[in-house]
């Protein structure tokens, strides 16, 4: 999947405030965060269960985790 598509999907899963924070980062960092989001979605078994119930909710939760981890560390 092209990095642009992954980044667009990641940004769409973020809250408006988090989206602003991420978009303020350099493009390379934004792409790294999007890749971390994809990894979070595919590796977290709790999100797998949520994804079956609501894929959008799982995407939002994973995006929130990635941003929280990046900005709080």
Quick recap:
The protein is mostly helical and 73 residues long. It is 86% helix and 0% strand.
Key structural traits:
73 residues, mainly alpha, 5 helices, globular
Note down, in words, how this protein is organized.
The protein is mainly α and 73 residues long. It has one domain. The chain contains five helices and no strands. Helix 3 packs across helix 5 and helix 4 runs antiparallel to helix 5. The longest helix has 18 residues. The termini are far apart.
H/I helix tally: 5
**β-sheet strand percentage:** under 5%
| Quaternary structure of the protein | single chain
Rg, alpha carbons: 11 Å
Low-pLDDT parts are: none
Structural class: mainly alpha
* Overall residue-averaged pLDDT value: 88
Number of extended strands = 0
How many domains, in number, for the residues?
Answer: 1
How are helices and strands ordered from N to C?
HHHHH
Note the overall shape.
globular
End-to-end separation? 28 Å
State the helical fraction.
Answer: over 70%
**Biggest sheet: strands, sense, closure?**
none
SSE topology:
Elements: H1 3-13, H2 16-23, H3 27-43, H4 45-53, H5 55-72
């Amino acid at each position: 999947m092209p990095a642009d598509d992954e980044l667009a999907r990641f940004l769409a899963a973020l809250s408006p405030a988090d989206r602003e924070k991420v978009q303020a980062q350099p493009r390379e960092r934004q792409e790294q965060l999007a890749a971390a989001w994809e990894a979070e979605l595919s590796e977290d078994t709790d999100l797998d269960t949520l994804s079956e119930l609501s894929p959008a909710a799982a995407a939002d939760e994973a995006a929130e985790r990635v941003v929280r981890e990046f900005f709080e560390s």
